[in-house]
Amino acid sequence: MRVPECMAMVLEQPHGPLQLRKRPVPKVMPGHVLLEVGVCGVCRTDLHLLDAELPGIGYPIVPGHQIVGRVAALGQGVTSVQLGQRVGVTWLAASCGSCDFCRRGEENLCDQARFTGYQIDGGFATHCVADAGYVFPLPDGYTDLEVAPLLCAGLIGFRCLRLCGEQAHRVGLYGFGSAAHLITQVARWQGRELFAFTRPGDLMTQTFARQVGAQWTGGSDQVPPVLLDAAIIFASAGELVPAALRVVRKGGSVVCGGIHMSDIPSFPYSILWGERHLRSVANLTRLDGREFLAVAPRVPVHAQITTYPLVQANRALEDLRSGRLKGSAVLVVASNS
Q1: pLDDT in tens, 86-111
Q2: Within its chain, how far is the Cα of 294 from the centroid?
């Protein structure tokens, strides 16, 4: 009997590039589902994987953790989803469920957590397997392409914004890419003012930020006209941390939203003093996912999308790296998506 096959863009060694490979369709384990992938969003974390900036990468690995697909097979014991159902898969693939972190609702910090497209094969492929307890029903009204960026860029942005605090009216965003352009829409809907910081001289992105809803735009080397209540750093540049602290008022917050950041340079205590808060966001929880996917249609959140066929995943990653993209990149895997 011939084994069914799938196509995947595979990272076989550090620094890539991804290679198109024909592989057996993955087997469905108990408690899991097999998905026929429709589309998969491209994330800066995929670049960190490509650049070997994440620890303990096992090669070969298929990246991709903003997956929209249809359930093609059910593993033993799965009753939470149905065959043919459209679902989304995010970065968090599994957690132990019993440690102190999990019992406190902090499953994103679980030491036994596993992550899609990093420790298990992800969605840069025609098929993938996911734990049925970690997939999300997706809201109606969004196409596959429209909803894919919400599954990481939107979710991480949402968690970052929440950690800024409800009283943070003026919020700065350092790095105006996929996450920033999505969460700007949520923040404006909540009545906040947004200040977008881009690479110095990047007038195209600054124009885009104003179109999406930013009240003020400038380079990351500039100072906004007022002190901010909070700032979110989406870019992976550690030197932005002191820059953000300098423009946040006393009692304000700086939230680092990436999974990886270059070293943070030393800075004077005076810019942290005054009860300013500096914190990171680590991954996300399933509760974040449920809450954001309920909020997004109410805003409504719309992603600006650039599409690529699966075989052009390397091009999508390079466009992301270079800053040529506006909004979100999405790989089209199935012809009907």
Answers
A1: 999 999 999 999 999 999 999 999 99
A2: 17
Instruction: Please give, one letter per residue, the 3-state secondary structure of 23-67.
Output: EECCCCCCCEEEEEEEEEEECHHHHHHHCCCCCCCCCCECCCCCE
CA proximity to 150, closest of 335, 330, 333: 330
Tokens at 239, concatenated: 């030197």
Question: Which domains are seen in the chain, by residue range?
Answer: 5-150+284-332 (3.90.180.10), 154-280 (3.40.50.720)
- Give the distance, in angstroms, between the CA of residue 253 and the centroid of all CA atoms in the same chain: 21
Residues 6+ positions from 186 with CB-CB distance below 8 Å: 157, 158, 161, 295, 296, 299, 301
CA distance 22 to 34: 17
The amino acid at residue 45 is T
pTM score > 0.85 for this model?
Answer: yes
Q: Do the Cβ atoms of 151 and 90 come closer than 8 Å? A: yes
Asked if residue 75 lies in contact with residue 29, where contact means CB atoms within 8 angstroms, the answer is yes
Asked whether the beta carbons of 121 and 128 are under 8 A apart, the reply is: yes
pLDDT at 181 over 90: yes
